[in-house]
From TrEMBL:
Biological process terms in GO annotation: tryptophanyl-tRNA aminoacylation
Stated family: Belongs to the class-I aminoacyl-tRNA synthetase family.
Protein name: Tryptophan--tRNA ligase
InterPro entries assigned: aa-tRNA-synth_I_CS, aa-tRNA-synth_Ic, Rossmann-like_a/b/a_fold, Trp-tRNA-ligase, Trp-tRNA-ligase_bac-type, Trp-tRNA_synthetase
């Protein structure tokens, strides 16, 4: 059976890239799949252990999920640290993953920067925890933005190695599923015009929570004025928009704004250019502001409303965590049997 898992870190400043690349697609998948959506608070502490207000940030991501249309009654929404299996399985995966594999992770290199000696061990081991998040539920499909592609490949490598290393134990206990072995080989779901939303200030950098410039991103909590100002100030070039997609090559900022428009309006860049080809950026930006306010305004307003009742959000997370734990505990018991760890 197909099962979707994905997560978002509660590191503050949830933005349009997180929405178009991930959350909006989470919403769509609810119609066709069983879905588990996790606020990955254990991941959030890998870059900086001491966050301004981790609990509030966790509630904010939960509010964004619900405000965007995720239904925590029909699917599972919870925060990672409430289900012990994530950390337990991550430890085992730390022992499956090879140093050489983790050394190739570009996100670690980017996030650790020049002072690598000072990066936390958690930041380095992040991809093994991510593999644990996914495989704890034997998820078959993971919707993510383009930036997570490499981590998903590592998840597949970990599943393959575990399945191979323990093939006899898996078969002996009858825990295997079909030809694959114990863990599924997860498929990434990456795509669409907004799989990689770029910074509004620099079309070569991805839109990111940690960019020091607030003008680089549209936050889900921005009001209409804030969205308008940021779009108006977004970097562009002096040429009008081309009529065909080929004309966007080497025009990173133009390509980004067209991709955002296509993402928000559920069309393709080609369709957007059919409508706006030949237009100046001033006109196109005005339409983009209207569209962004129309799509994001209600989400921001609903998030603000939900955030006024933290007790309700915590109850949603607790309910999701108990349902997630029921699945997770079974996987952990089986994995312990497979590895040979004595359990109660
Ligand atoms: N710019 C982006 N375009 C498309 N998708 C994106 N995602 C992130 N940035 C973009 C997707 O959002 C989901 C949640 O991301 P995360 O919370 O795990 O954090 P991240 O990938 O590290 O992204 P951020 O927001 O840019 O944070 P920082 O600044 O800490 O690096 C993921 O599915 C991600 O692909």
């Amino acid at each position: 059976k197909e099962l979707v898992f994905s997560g978002v870190q509660p590191t503050g400043n949830l933005h349009l890239g997180n929405y178009l690349g991930a959350v909006r697609r989470f919403v769509a998948l609810q119609e066709t799949h069983d879905c588990i959506y996790c606020v990955v608070d254990l991941h959030a502490i890998t870059a900086t252990l001491s966050q301004p207000d981790l609990a509030a940030q966790t509630r904010e991501v939960t509010a964004a999920f619900i405000a965007s249309g995720i239904d925590p009654a029909r699917h599972i929404v919870f925060n990672q640290s409430q289900v012990a299996g994530h950390a337990e399985l991550a430890w085992i995966f730390n022992c499956v993953a090879r140093l050489g594999w983790l050394n190739r992770m570009t996100q670690f290199k980017e996030k650790a920067g020049k002072d690598r000696e000072n990066a936390s061990v958690g930041l380095y081991a992040y991809p093994a925890l991510m593999a644990a998040d996914i495989l704890l539920y034997k998820a078959t499909h993971v919707p993510v933005g383009e930036d997570q592609k490499q981590h998903l490949e590592l998840t597949r490598d970990i599943a393959i190695k575990f399945n191979n290393d323990f093939s006899e134990q898996i078969a002996a206990r009858g825990y295997g599923v079909g030809e694959t072995g114990y863990f599924p080989i997860t498929e990434p779901l990456i795509g669409g015009p907004a799989a990689r939303v770029m910074s509004l200030r620099d079309g070569t950098k991805k839109m990111s929570k940690s960019d020091p410039s607030d003008y680089s991103r549209i936050n889900l909590t921005d009001d209409a004025d804030g969205i308008a100002q940021k779009v108006r100030k977004a970097k562009t070039d002096p040429e009008p928009l081309p009529s065909e997609e080929a004309g966007l090559e080497k025009r990173a900022e133009a390509q980004n704004l067209v991709g955002i428009y296509a993402g928000l309006s559920d069309t393709t860049p080609a369709e957007v250019l059919r409508q706006f080809g030949g237009a100046q950026f001033s006109g196109f930006k005005a339409s983009l502001v209207d569209l962004a306010v129309e799509k994001l305004g209600p989400i921001g307003a609903e998030m603000a409303r939900l955030m006024k009742d933290p007790g309700h959000i915590d109850a949603v997370l607790a309910d999701g965590a108990s349902r997630a734990s029921a699945i997770a505990e079974r996987t952990i018991a089986e994995v312990k049997d497979i590895v040979g760890l004595i359990r109660r």
